Fold each of these.
Amino acid sequence: MATKHLFLLAGDGIGPEAMAEVKKLISAMNDKLGSGFVTEDGLVGGCAYDAHGAAISDADMAKAMAADAVLFGAVGGPKWDAVPYEARPEAGLLRLRKDMELFANLRPAICYPALAASSSLKQEVVEGLDILIVRELTGGVYFGEPKQIIDLGNGQKRGIDTQVYDTFEIERISGVAFELARTRKNHVTSMEKRNVMKSGVLWNEVVTQTHKARYADVKLDHMLADAGGMQLVRWPKQFDVIVTDNLFGDMLSDIAAMLTGSIGMLPSASLGAPDVKTKKRKALYEPVHGSAPDIAGKGIANPIAMIASFAMCLRYSFGMVEEADRVEAAIAAVLDQGLRTKDILSEGMTEVGTVQMGDAIIAKF
Amino acid sequence: MATKHLFLLAGDGIGPEAMAEVKKLISAMNDKLGSGFVTEDGLVGGCAYDAHGAAISDADMAKAMAADAVLFGAVGGPKWDAVPYEARPEAGLLRLRKDMELFANLRPAICYPALAASSSLKQEVVEGLDILIVRELTGGVYFGEPKQIIDLGNGQKRGIDTQVYDTFEIERISGVAFELARTRKNHVTSMEKRNVMKSGVLWNEVVTQTHKARYADVKLDHMLADAGGMQLVRWPKQFDVIVTDNLFGDMLSDIAAMLTGSIGMLPSASLGAPDVKTKKRKALYEPVHGSAPDIAGKGIANPIAMIASFAMCLRYSFGMVEEADRVEAAIAAVLDQGLRTKDILSEGMTEVGTVQMGDAIIAKF
Ligand SMILES: CC(C)[C@H](C(=O)O)[C@@H](O)C(=O)O
Ligand SMILES: CC(C)[C@H](C(=O)O)[C@@H](O)C(=O)O
């Protein structure tokens, strides 16, 4: 097979431990299947700041741009709390999203049958849950200008952020949501706050037009984002695909993740537009969980979200659908077998560490 | 007792039905206790638009400003979906908040023991839950300028909203949160997104300073708003008072409300600053639920949130602590007795309508 270039940004905290398990899986695939993956490591987040004073170096940024796909671990930790705003660990991730133009963030919230009982929600509310949050990732209040703190004198400051959305941004993200819905239950729910935000009014209008013009076969609902959050908690199975902006997507996807009872399990994909010539999309794959500095280095982190992110990479960047299915089946199999890292441990199950969990998944692959 | 002027804005949907039950309670208090309430009705929301083309008239706005307290029902419904943005039902509520300078929105999320089983969360997660969300209500992205849709030509538009917070706004809302925490479990959690928003950086800084300068006896934690949403779903009892901005407060308080399994039960208070001379605060009391147009006019709406909002009014606007306690005890008593409106009905309980529920609470008062 053709050589596939993966750029690995393990980052901080439990990022490197989780990434190590993916590396083993990649080696196994190269050895057994001749998958042709070539990997290179870079630095992002606090470790990058420690190394060269920025949350990602220009050299690593260039490698991310050139790779077929980027695998990202996690960034941040108390060590870097006092770092200047521009160099804070998150800035590395935000620069990757912006410079690679990864406008479409796909966050599946799936409740693995073996884990339904570990949710804080009633089992019948979450069992079998399978929703996909499509979050706009390069616009909105994350990147709009002005974004600044102004000194007004007299001990008064003013903090300003700007939410900006253009028609084309809403069009392309809703297009992604509608396309994905067609491969699922054919139902999209768009969420905004059109009752207080002008960007929400435009969002609603453009999603409605895009639907009418190109995706009338898909069922479309609109929900105010606050009501949407409530409905996620009340009865999440009413949703199939949710499409929303950057900030609401941040909140809602984390809540959806928590419903499943296992944030250590959930992957995400961030995709750019297909290149006009090569049709290839820039892409970054990342677990939903953070760097979890409190458990870093102890060998107890759950590597499943990182491994599942690699499965998304196989599916979306390389069209390796069969291999992706196999990775996901291997994860389900070790769970059925009763293996659990500490974060998802429950009575009668077998506690394992990061490495054992990774080994078990690779053995089932 | 001195005359107490209440201005009643029942609004749309189930607002008037719920307000009718409060009116009965007010009459009963006047008759039995000589409480001295004088009420006047006004229009807000869709019904105000139908009557005079604005979501609230200047005359009613003046009455709200002059009253000792405003009781507010709910606004909106599909009938007014196509109304111009400036006259949409919500604009009435937003004008009340802004013109009365009701910067502090208090949203208790209490799980009544009798209802713990009706939450979508596991009983042990929500039983005994008692948290208070203190939401900033007159600033942030709700009111910041520019707020507009610009036509860029070529079929492209740009939607813009602006999040703005000044030091004094953050100082006064966190002061309210700290004061209230002292009457509770003495613990405040402040939530923002300082990792992506400059207003979040300022928020974090000012809350920290306010704490240090005046409330060092209160326990203070900071949490990113997305993580806060997750923690609310995972283990809400870790919180006592949560203080956050207007938009995050909108999302988080609705999620907190849904945890309790009974959004039809939850009241809110919106308070202004104490007047320099009279020490009185402008105030508006409002159920957390909306206008629920689908069940309006059927006599099945739950009036408890509206009645509990009046209890908050007794407590915060008139210092009638004993009476407020009695109203809240009466609500708990009818629930213990097994009476339920449709929205909170469960097996073995007695279904009652809006009027019966109101009567039962008044009888227990
Ligand atoms: C780390 C942070 C900047 C990021 C975000 O807010 O987008 C994270 O919360 C996420 O959801 O990926
Ligand atoms: C009706 C709407 C404008 C309002 C808000 O967004 O503040 C509502 O959702 C609330 O929380 O009171």
Amino acid sequence: PNVLVLPGDGIGKEITPEAVKVLEAVLKGRSTSLNFEYGLIGGAAIDEVGKALPDATLAAAQAADAILLGAVGGPKWETLPAQERPELGGLLKIRKALSLYANIRPVKMSPMLVDASTLRPEVVKDVDLVVLRELTGGLYFGEKGRKTNPTSAYDILIYTEEEIRRIVELGFQMAVKRTGRLCSVDKANVLESSRLWREITVEIAKDYPGVDLTHMYVDNAAMQLVLRPNQFDVIVTENMFGDILTDLASMLGGSIGLVPSASLNGKKGLYEPSHGSAPDIAGKNIANPLATILSGALMLRYSFDLEEEAQMIEQAVEAVLAEGYRTPDLAKPGDKVLGTREMGNAIV
Amino acid sequence: PNVLVLPGDGIGKEITPEAVKVLEAVLKGRSTSLNFEYGLIGGAAIDEVGKALPDATLAAAQAADAILLGAVGGPKWETLPAQERPELGGLLKIRKALSLYANIRPVKMSPMLVDASTLRPEVVKDVDLVVLRELTGGLYFGEKGRKTNPTSAYDILIYTEEEIRRIVELGFQMAVKRTGRLCSVDKANVLESSRLWREITVEIAKDYPGVDLTHMYVDNAAMQLVLRPNQFDVIVTENMFGDILTDLASMLGGSIGLVPSASLNGKKGLYEPSHGSAPDIAGKNIANPLATILSGALMLRYSFDLEEEAQMIEQAVEAVLAEGYRTPDLAKPGDKVLGTREMGNAIV
Ligand SMILES: CC(C)[C@H](C(=O)O)[C@@H](O)C(=O)O
Ligand SMILES: CC(C)[C@H](C(=O)O)[C@@H](O)C(=O)O
């Protein structure tokens, strides 16, 4: 299969090679081998060809079997018109163009990182949850603009029944495969879109009598994630709430530097770390490649059905952490600190 | 001055009397005395007069100098059309009708409650921040509705320049009075309303050269609140982000049961706990009245300029906690557990 690698900006350029290295190592001598191609996205693409998502990149993404993305954005491109910037013009555009509506962000506490969390060990030690975030609808893609007299700006949060149905269905399916608990997060006491979301969720629930479905308001969900994270197994929610809750949930796994993500549409997948391009630490060989490496594991699992190989990567990460190796972002006194490349080598 | 008390639903009926008791006690023999009147709101008003915000309540609120509110909502009224429910038809309606655009939620860790937090003591022990939430705009009050072909539901996030300006100005003023740090939270990499918010904030900043202004995306802000809460002093943000971040921030103060709120419009104030009506524990004399009692302190401070008396209440809460008294929600083994009324008496 063909994998399109889009390093993007900042640390994206340093962390994607480590994931490629690990994918090559784990597949060596196995029946599946991956063919890596490279493309431009984000600020790097703006600089080279004047567009955050060049046509060639989109065509390559459409042709590829899976995509591995680093991160996009940085101060250099922040003065451009919003629609042209790396985020809107690159990342959101490729998500939408490929209809990658299902964003999966698993957060599992590693026994080795319990001490890296700012939450108490007893609260986070057993955290094992997945946030399923709708990725191609809502405020992100609704009409937006300015008005005059008086000057104002607006963004429309809109969801069709179909958009809600496909992501919530997936939530139920994931819950069935895990412990059977699904928490749908909305703000149905205020938003009409949330009320439609809840109606559809309640309707779909009839097809999954074995799933224990709860509904939670987003404000309460943010609080409950910190108060009793173990109550959660699968969380399903709309785009903006999911954006906020996944960053928050990453704190329960010790660090956002460990949270991979898969963005799927039933056929193709795009895999990227949940963190950003961190321009402040770029180019110094100190970025943590683990979320990208673990995104590679998700690629093997979801795009190529290589569960065993996916677990080999996940276990390698655990083993390296267990040996006391850490990138600087995770290091505590006494740890053995590794650079980006050295961490990739250790996993290999 | 006249204070309108709106107990509302669930535990609202139990916690407001305790706040009234404390306000009466602290003002006894002082030059200001408060005259308490009572009104209906939320489910209680629906049951009695068929409307979540009766005309009589609104008229009384308009005439009063300040309002003390308990909480609204409960399963009993969840099947009503959304616009008639306690939340939309009661709480949001009175906020809007009185133009209470500035919601202040201070979160300060009490030394006594460091152990009640699920965050590590060293992370939360010095937390002292205020979230300033815009309360009458955004997704909450924008046009909302359904469409057919295909079936969809929408909510409009809209802010006028003027709405942004007045709340952000207040944020700068609060920052000046505190440690001079203001963090404006938005999602300017995606939302047009956030871009207008940021432009206006940058413009206002010119009038406050002494304030150290930072901008943070809402997803990162949720993460940073858990990672390094001490970096925050005053946070200013729009309605929905503020809803989520205040519930989250309450965890940094040990419990949402301690977070008061003031909703102001420059003239009048409405004071309510940040928590909800908790129908599951209502009527059992076990609800925690402290957030409501502390909301009474905010009333003295912001509506009646009685700083000394406000601090007397705040110190009484500290003292009672220091003596080891706790309501059940805060109790750890060895604590002296008090009921709602008994906690009110202890503060008195
Ligand atoms: C960079 C930004 C547009 C993006 C988002 O908000 O989706 C990021 O925060 C993420 O979560 O992938
Ligand atoms: C009850 C609900 C409508 C309300 C809100 O979202 O504003 C509550 O969560 C709050 O924060 O005061």
